[in-house]
Amino acid sequence: MTVAARPSLRAAWWFQFRDVRLGRVALTLALSIGLMALALHVPSFLPSGADLADSGQRAYARNIWQESQTSLALVAIVLPWLVYGLLWQGAPWGRRILLVLATVGVVGTTWLALLSAQSYSALPRQVPGVVDHVQGRTIWLQDGANYYLVLSDAELRSAQPWLRSGTAVTLWIAPRGHVGSIAEDELGRSAGN
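^ that's the sequence the OP posted. Answer follows.
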């Protein structure tokens, strides 16, 4: 992008195609998309804090790992752009703007990925309770506590018939308050019959 001063002291902006290296931008974009797809399918490479012999905790670990994969995908989107800004010279202001935005993006998404990885490797907490109400992906228990459900869409749909007010449930919760697994208690089954 170039700025030229006109005699009337107005600045005229025009775009010069030679300032954009389309091949490098396309390569970086393809790398971002490829790394994102890879991150969304990478198997767990961290030890889980959950007891994988227990089916409830195994479901918890699976759901919390999907949250970690999403965080890794966000890092994979912005990291190639930081590398792009560091490796290839461009217009000075454009390069500076790209480096600032990419650095903020990498720092923010890396922090989020580390937080998700910490949740995955932490020991989950088992919380029994009675459902007060469920709204979207948030569940409120009758004791006043509320938690965010990170269950898969299929698990959430299969829980809809019994996940209602007054049902006794057992939740497996990550340190950040995310529910990775939910099961109806025997008490809840007998109360619903």
